Amino acid sequence: MSQLHLFHEQTARQRIAAVTDAGSFAELLPPPERLTSPYLAQLGIPVSFDDGVVIGHARIDGKKVYIAAQVGQFVGGAVGEIHGAKLTGLFKAAARDRVPCVVIIESGGVRLHEGSAGEIAIAETMRAIFECRARKVPTIAVIASDIGAYGGMGILSTCCDFRVMTEHGRLGISGPIVIEKWMGKKAYDSSNRALVWKTSGGKTKYLLGDADALVHDAAGAVREAIGKLLTKSSPVTLKNAKARQKELEKRLKRFGKTADPDDVWKGLGVRDIATASLASGPEFAALAKAGRK
Amino acid sequence: MKQPSPRALLGKLFGGSAKGIAVEKSVLTGYAQAGGKDVCVIGTCNGTYIGNEAALVLAAHVIDCVERRPKTPIVMLVDSAGQEPNRVDEMLGLASYFGHLLNCLELARRKGHKLLTIATGKAVGGAFICYGMFADRIYALDSASVGLMPIEAMSAVTKIPVPVLQKLSKTMPSLEFGARPFALLGGVEEVWPSKDDLQARLAEAIATAAVDDNRAALGKKRGGRKLALDIRNRVLAESAK
Amino acid sequence: MEKFTKAFPSKPLRVPKDRQWALAGVVGSGNLEVMFERAARASDTMECHVETSIPGFRDSWLAALADFARHYPVGGTKVTIHDQGAAPVLVNLRLRQAYDHLVKTKP
């Protein structure tokens, strides 16, 4: 796949092809299986052959991985019963075979049209992710589009060992429109794109330490970041949990009273906000690192 | 249905030992007893919204339990309307705070703590996903409001008329809101009548808790979620070829 | 939703049988997905199944599909379409893309 394509503009299938070894992807439950949502069909809403998520196995630098990519264009990449069961099955297969699992997330969370079935599916997938982690099988979430990882999928992404983001990616639970409705336009103007991205975008998440890599919006860069993480894992231990507790307490104490994301950026090493805003992901990471010294 | 006060409910669940549970800003933490044995309690009440701070309080208590009370079962009570839409919480990584709470619960599970949830009031959206749904076994009081969202709210967001959703919910319990339809999906092991002897129910539930995730199998058996288990198993079978 | 099915005469598909199916596009507003599969049935017809969220355009669909079957050798295939209001020009593009995926030997 050509590097000229921006990763966030590619389709789910193109993304998988672009981050894995050429021709190595084998899809599980492929489109001819026609596992389409009976809920959407009943509601008279168009269905999709893969129910909005492509799953399978492939190789990255010769190493086997399980990989999934959500289709953001299809009902917002939201998780219904089938979609969620495909994800659960994939992570369970990864745990069973001790093969790393990568999920390219592009989802607003639970698919409302399927009610609680999608909600339970996300909870089940979380359990499956932790089955992987119990066996030290790396789990990696890639968040690289403006649909991002929201709602239950935002929470699910934080259950994985690692998160790879681009500056286009957004990670959160409630989206800007919901928050604006709740708090008022004064507190959160959802049409202010700079503010929206500074609230939930890859740069801020990377600064906070919630994203483990911030890379260019290109498949090659995403692939390289995944490749580096495939041999690592983030063990669930008491020591790590206590350290994380301390870190999150400190974060809340330090920035909980501020409404301005620029304060967070400055506090975490960004000296020149304007330059940092225009910087690419990796440039931004370098600026913040230099600023903290 | 009228909800009992948080203290009254804690009394019904834990008897006199409920005094060991602190209620602060509608967040519950403490230690109590069930069936004559110690349990750790975390939870929410009053249908409160939860955010970063609540997640940290709950996580800290789970860590405390893991450190100081090895293998003590953890009972999670859920009565929360979800995460409050808040820009500052989001900016600081609400998802990560919830993820940390889940991580702490996973740690407890691996260290041999049984994890049990009782949905006591509102158990909706993010607040249910971020701890309650992560238990080994999940129970709900019949008075609890369990599910993604009521049909009216679903209609408002999806623009599908309420009568259409109501009609479909007759054959698709996933669309219906409440503890019983949620149990049909396998999301809840058993619905407890609020009038029952809840102390006895709880003691029994702790004694029989198992760690496998049985929800998809239950959903299939009960007919509320017919596809999930088979699809998952097909992924497992075909990936093994 | 409107659904319809029809078969059109077409010259037989002329490529090796290593590829059983091909997909193009995604289901999203103003977009569609098109899947070609090799069908076991007659090698001189293209069997079409269309589901569209915009009712009332059956004739345009059938004309576009008949046209495609006339210009491309797709006999012996089954094409299934899930449409969410795509413009005709996009329908043609997706048909061609899916066909190209089907006939090219390696990615």
Derived structural class of chain C: alpha+beta
What is the mean pLDDT of chain C?
93
The portion of residues forming beta strands of chain B comes to: 15-25%
Helix proportion range of chain C: 25-40%
What low-confidence regions of chain C span 5 or more consecutive residues with pLDDT below 50? none
Arrangement of strands in the largest sheet of chain C? 1-4-5-3-2
The helix content of chain B, as a percent range, equals 40-55%
- CATH fold node name of chain B: 2-enoyl-CoA Hydratase, Chain A, domain 1
Name the CATH homologous superfamily of chain B: 2-enoyl-CoA Hydratase, Chain A, domain 1
Topology as H/E string of chain B? HEEEEHEHHEHEEHHHEHHH
By DSSP (H or I, 4+ residues per run), the number of helices of chain B equals 11
Gross morphology of chain B? globular
What's the overall geometry of chain C? Answer: globular
Gyration radius of chain B, rounded? 18 Å
- Identify the biggest protein-protein contact and residues per side: A-B, 86 and 77 residues
Q: How many domain units of chain C?
A: 1
Given as residue ranges, the uncertain stretches of chain B (5+ residues, pLDDT < 50) are none
Helix count of chain C equals 2
Q: Please give the domain count of chain B.
A: 1
Explain how this protein is built.
The complex is a heterotrimer of chains A (293), B (241) and C (107). Chain A has 293 residues and is an alpha/beta fold. Chain A has a domain at 7-171 and 211-233: 2-enoyl-CoA Hydratase, Chain A, domain 1, CATH 3.90.226. Chain A has helices at residues 12-19, 38-42, 81-97, 116-134, 151-157, 176-183, 193-200, 202-208, 219-229, 238-255, 261-267, 273-278, 281-292, and strands at residues 26-28, 53-60, 63-70, 101-105, 139-143, 162-166, 213-215. Chain A has a seven-stranded mixed β-sheet, sandwiched between helices. Chain B starts with 5 loop residues before the first helix and ends with a helix. Chain B is globular, with a radius of gyration of 18 Å. In chain B, strands 1, 2, 3, 4, 5, 6, 7, 8 and 9 form a nine-stranded mixed β-sheet that branches. With 241 residues, chain B is α/β, with parallel strands linked by helices. Chain B has a single domain, classed as 2-enoyl-CoA Hydratase, Chain A, domain 1 (Alpha-Beta Complex), CATH 3.90.226.10. In chain B, helix 2 runs parallel beside helix 4. With 107 residues, chain C is α+β, with helices and mostly antiparallel strands. Chain C has one domain (2-103). Chain C is built from two helices and five strands, in the order E-E-E-E-H-E-H. In chain C, helix 1 links the parallel strand 4 and strand 5 (77-84). In chain C, helix 1 (58-71) packs parallel to helix 2. The longest helix of chain C is centred in the C-terminal third of the chain and has 16 residues, at 88-103. The chains are: A alpha/beta (293), B alpha/beta (241), C alpha+beta (107). Chains in contact: A-B, A-C. Chains A and B meet through helix 2, helix 3, helix 4, helix 5 and helix 6 of A and helix 2, helix 3, helix 4, helix 5 and helix 6 of B.
